[in-house]
Each structure stands twice: as C-alpha cells, then as structure tokens.
Amino acid sequence: MIPAALTPQIAALGIALGLVFSLVCYLTTNLSPGGMITPGWLALTLVTDVQRALLVLAVTVLTYLATKALQRAVILYGKRLFAAVVLSAVLIQMTVVIALQQEFPLLWTSQTLGFIVPGLIAYQLVRQPKAATAIATGAVTLGTYVVLAAGLLLGALPTA
C-alpha cells in the first residue's frame, strides 16, 4: 500500500531519482523535462495525491497561456522570461488556493514546491517544442513514479 504522507527520506529519494532521470533525459535528448526537479516532485505528488497532480497540470496550462499573452505586450527573454513565468505560476496557484481552500483544505498541506513546479514546466514549454517537452516531462515523471512506487509497494522504502 502506498502511504498518503511520505517520510522526508522518501521525498528526498523521489527528488533525487527525478534528478537522475532528468539528467539522463537532458543528456540524451537535449530536452529539459520541465526542469530538473519537476519530474521527481510530480512523481511524489502522483504517489500521494493524484488530484494535486491534475491541479498542477491545469495551473501549468494557465501559466503557459498567460505567458504567451504577456509576451505579446512585453519583450521577455532570458532571466526576465523565467521570472515572469514563475511569478505568473505562483500568482495563478495562489488564486486557485484562495478560491478553493475552503472546499478542499487538505489539497494544500505543505505544498511549497508545488507553487514553483507549474512555472518551471511552463517555462520549458515556452522555450522548447511543446510536444517534445510534454513527452519528456511525462516519460521522466513516469519512470521516477514507477521506481518510487515499486520501492514503496515492495516494502524496500520505509513508510513510517
């Protein structure tokens, strides 16, 4: 059985696995899978709460669309583009949190990194081909999830 809450050691292992798989993806395809820490965090989110992963996907799409609209009005490149995308993601995520927190309070228990991840994915969607980025992010996240879930289900990782 996969636990609803993970230990800090499992969380660190999930992020580390995601980093390794992300690095392999980047070195073999020259594509960033939504940022280096993103697949590990998404895999951990899938292990604990699929609803939160779907929310991240929705916020990522909204952030991407907001960034494309912003690029029509403002010249964005380099560090400015990165800051604008991540700040847009945080703003959209906070808006969603404020709007839905009363109905779904458990959806946002200690989710600090979740405010940044949609921005990291959207940033890569702006910089790289959309389909290739989505496939790379999905594949690396799935690989990380399979290894992490298998370790949890086989009892190789401590759950308490």
From TrEMBL:
GO biological process, one term: capsule polysaccharide biosynthetic process
Keyword list, A-Z: Membrane, Transmembrane, Transmembrane helix
InterPro entries in the record: Capsule_biosynth_CapC (IPR008338)
Pfam families: Caps_synth_CapC
Keyword Cytoplasm listed: no
Transmembrane segment boundaries: 12-29, 41-65, 77-100, 106-126, 133-157
A single GO cellular-component term on record: membrane
Transmembrane helix as UniProt keyword: yes
Protein name from the UniProt record: Poly-gamma-glutamate biosynthesis protein PgsC/CapC
